[in-house]
């Protein structure tokens, strides 16, 4: 591994080069979040003296410690990191010898809007760089600081951080051999929902040219009034006023404790909108809001009016998304009929009818398994199709259907399982406790990674665009696109 230096407007940074890939970690796209800058708009990165060490990961956004799990999740979410407020940063993976302007891919990590890190091993962008793409992976503010509409604080600070990162890419990526006129924004889970939000945001227009949403779609943003319910509950828990001064008066650890408390299942939080829907299905309390300059209207309305039509879209889901939330700990098989009716009733109108459509009245089927199948379609799969259908530009839909053998074969094609295949980082997610189990197929990673790289370079994929007339969906494992019937979930969603 050899040192390599790059000159940025703020100063000189030193990364490393190995096996044909330049790596620069934790380059700042905005100023550090000091106490004065907390709950403020992102400010331009500050100049530094000397040479900035960009050879190792830096701090991540403040987040709570995760509870233990049967699955090793550090590779997916990131392990312990350095402390400090200098976390509005990004990693750059670039070819050692750029031969002309290269396509650029900018990744937004997931984590239910409260967790995650650009430095998770699974997001190593070296495979993209080896294949001629400049890959950028970003941090952003999370939870209370990134997504609560606090009195006297700009809304959607997490999204504003992402926009600042994209502006940094536009200004600086040519220094790494990247083409600022060929940028693909992609993300998974919360990162995919944010990608969809930026697809329709007027503030992000022109900052990227293609988008990939992995397990995320356009039915997401909340009315600010709903999010203020969370704000008031969290402030009450902390015994503070629900404004900037109030949150600054408590330590970050206390704020994170209250943030985690608000994520727990509780009848105290009714997150349903006027249509009696909670697009997060209780998985998170923290989501972007609409009605500001970032998202002037609900995302689904903006998409239907043509926002983002100039951006090519690749979108899809895994075939057993909800397994990740209910298989670990054996939760899925412990849920009875009453529990699944209550849980789903807090997320969709006509919950009983929706569950019956997926087999609830079949006494041979366990209620938790019925709910998991229904939630997979209601929360993820059908709305990815609707997003492709509503998008007025070119859209392509895929299905990730490789089943992980983890947890005795029960995890299956769960939420997030596709990520190591996209980044071609199977080794870090494999093993007895890995999310992929033992010996995942490299051939699937080769194929999926190649599709993502080709799409970023040219906007092309090896199957036809999604149209409501024939609903062509591409199977990642079988390598074919076929017409797909309308799902039962369609009757219960916009």
Account of the 3D structure:
The protein has 494 residues and is α/β, with parallel strands linked by helices. It has 16 helices and 13 strands. The N and C termini lie far apart (52 Å). 53% of the residues are buried. The model has no long low-confidence stretch (mean pLDDT 96).
Topology (elements, then pairings):
Layout: E1 2-8, E2 11-18, E3 21-28, E4 51-53, H1 74-77, E5 89-95, E6 102-108, H2 126-130, E7 134-138, H3 143-147, H4 157-172, E8 178-188, H5 190-200, E9 210-214, H6 224-238, H7 244-248, H8 252-263, H9 299-304, E10 312-318, H10 323-326, H11 331-334, H12 337-345, H13 351-357, H14 367-390, E11 395-400, H15 419-423, H16 442-458, E12 472-475, E13 480-483
Helix pairs in contact: 6-8
Can you describe this structure in just a few lines?
This protein is α/β, with parallel strands linked by helices and 494 residues long.
* Morphology call: globular
- The radius of gyration over CA amounts to 21 Å
Total number of beta strands: 13
Quickly give the structural class. Answer: alpha/beta
Low-pLDDT parts are none
> What is the mean predicted local confidence, pLDDT?
96
Strand fraction equals 15-25%
Query: Largest sheet, described in full?
Result: 13 strands, mixed
Distance between the amino and carboxyl termini: 52 Å
Q: How many alpha or pi helices?
A: 16
Helix content: 25-40%
Topology order in helix (H) and strand (E) letters: EEEEHEEHEHHEHEHHHHEHHHHHEHHEE
């Amino acid at each position: 591994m050899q040192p390599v230096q790059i000159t940025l407007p703020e100063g000189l940074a030193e990364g490393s080069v190995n096996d044909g890939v330049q790596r620069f970690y934790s380059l700042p796209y905005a100023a550090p979040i000091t106490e004065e800058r907390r709950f403020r708009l992102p400010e331009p990165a500050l100049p530094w003296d000397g040479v900035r060490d960009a050879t190792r990961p830096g701090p991540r956004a403040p987040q709570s410690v995760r509870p233990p799990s049967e699955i090793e999740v550090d590779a997916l979410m990131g392990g312990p990191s350095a402390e400090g407020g200098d976390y509005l940063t990004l990693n750059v993976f670039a070819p050692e010898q750029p031969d002309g302007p290269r396509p650029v891919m900018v990744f937004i990590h997931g984590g239910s809007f409260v967790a995650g890190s650009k430095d998770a091993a699974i997001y190593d962008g070296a495979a993209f760089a080896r294949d001629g793409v400049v890959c950028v992976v970003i941090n952003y503010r999370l939870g209370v600081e990134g997504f609560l509409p606090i009195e006297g604080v700009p809304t959607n600070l997490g999204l504003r951080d992402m926009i600042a990162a994209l502006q940094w890419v536009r200004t600086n990526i040519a220094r790494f051999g990247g083409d600022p006129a060929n940028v693909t924004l992609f993300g998974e889970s919360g990162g995919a929902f944010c990608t969809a939000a930026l697809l329709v945001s007027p503030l992000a227009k022109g900052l990227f040219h293609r988008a990939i949403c992995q397990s995320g779609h356009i039915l997401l943003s909340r009315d600010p009034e709903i999010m203020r319910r969370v704000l008031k509950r969290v402030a009450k828990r902390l015994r503070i006023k629900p404004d900037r001064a109030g949150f600054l008066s408590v330590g970050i650890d206390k704020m994170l404790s209250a943030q985690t408390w608000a994520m727990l299942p509780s009848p105290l939080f009714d997150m349903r909108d006027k249509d009696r829907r909670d697009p997060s299905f209780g998985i998170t309390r923290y989501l972007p809001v609409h009605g500001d300059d970032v998202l002037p209207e609900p995302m689904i309305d903006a998409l239907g009016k043509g926002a983002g039509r100039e951006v090519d879209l690749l979108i899809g889901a895994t075939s057993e998304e909800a397994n990740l939330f209910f298989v670990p700990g054996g939760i899925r098989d412990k849920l009875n009929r009453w529990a699944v009716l209550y849980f789903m009733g807090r997320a969709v109108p006509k919950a009983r009818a929706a569950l019956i459509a997926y087999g609830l009245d079949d006494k041979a089927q366990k209620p938790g398994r019925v709910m998991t199948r229904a939630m997979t379609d209601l929360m993820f799969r059908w709305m990815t199709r609707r997003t492709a259908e509503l998008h007025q530009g070119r859209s392509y839909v895929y299905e990730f259907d490789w089943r992980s053998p983890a947890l005795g074969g029960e995890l299956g094609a769960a939420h997030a399982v596709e990520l190591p295949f996209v980044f071609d980082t199977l080794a870090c997610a494999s093993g007895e406790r890995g999310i992929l189990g033992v010996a995942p197929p490299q051939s699937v990673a080769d194929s999926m990674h190649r599709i993502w790289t080709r799409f970023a370079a040219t906007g092309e994929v090896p199957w036809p665009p999604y149209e409501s007339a024939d609903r062509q969906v591409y199977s990642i494992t079988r390598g074919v696109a076929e017409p797909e019937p309308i799902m039962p979930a369609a009757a219960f969603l916009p």
